[in-house]
Amino acid sequence: MDVGCGMAHLLYELTQVVPGMIVNGIDISQYALEHAKEEIRDRLQYGQAQNIPFDDDEFDLVISLATLHNLKIYDLKKAVQEIERVSKGKSYIMVESFRNDREEVNMLYWQLTCASYYAVDEWEWLYKEWGYTGDYSFIFFEDGK
Ligand SMILES: C[S@@+](CC[C@H](N)C(=O)[O-])C[C@H]1O[C@@H](n2cnc3c(N)ncnc32)[C@H](O)[C@@H]1O
Predict the structure, then answer these.
(1) pLDDT tens digit string along 99-127?
(2) Are 41 and 9 in contact (CB under 8 A)?
(3) Which among 25, 26, 41, 50 could bridge 2 via Cys, Cβ 3.0 to 4.6 Å?
(4) Distant-in-sequence, close-in-space partners of 135: CB < 8 Å, separation ≥ 6
(5) What was the pLDDT predicted at 89?
(6) Which residues line ligand 1 (CB under 6 A)?
(7) How far is the CA of 71 from the centre of ligand 1 (A)?
């Protein structure tokens, strides 16, 4: 399950390298869902990260890449707990963050859709506070990149 799958390029690639793998994706962008590759389109559906339309423990792996920082804190909490709920135990979240003042400024300038601006230690605190047990990583707006 890819939460915020966009046009689902990653899910498509996964089905190519792991034949037989069953994938699902949700996104709130009808444009992205409609413009995903035809081979995978029927595996995608409209769905909000903060209300994932699947049962508890439904997926072997849940990922969410470059999506959750777009949510405001009250939806972010729900989304993190939803990912935990629908996963059998393995999950991976990647969001944009910052490690210093420069990267924070870069993020404020360049990340137009961000609603949750948190430093790495704050994200880690939130994950722990909300009971998230999966893996995670961050990307940063470094100078000159
Ligand atoms: C930067 S794109 C990342 C797409 C894809 N995960 C990738 O890494 O290429 C962020 C995606 O999150 C989706 N999104 C934003 N808020 C969402 C929400 N509340 N629930 C589900 N998807 C959401 C957007 O529509 C967009 O497709």
Answers:
(1) 999 999 999 888 788 999 999 999 999 99
(2) no
(3) 25
(4) 90, 91, 92, 93
(5) 93
(6) 4-6, 26-29, 32, 48-50, 65-67, 70-71
(7) 10
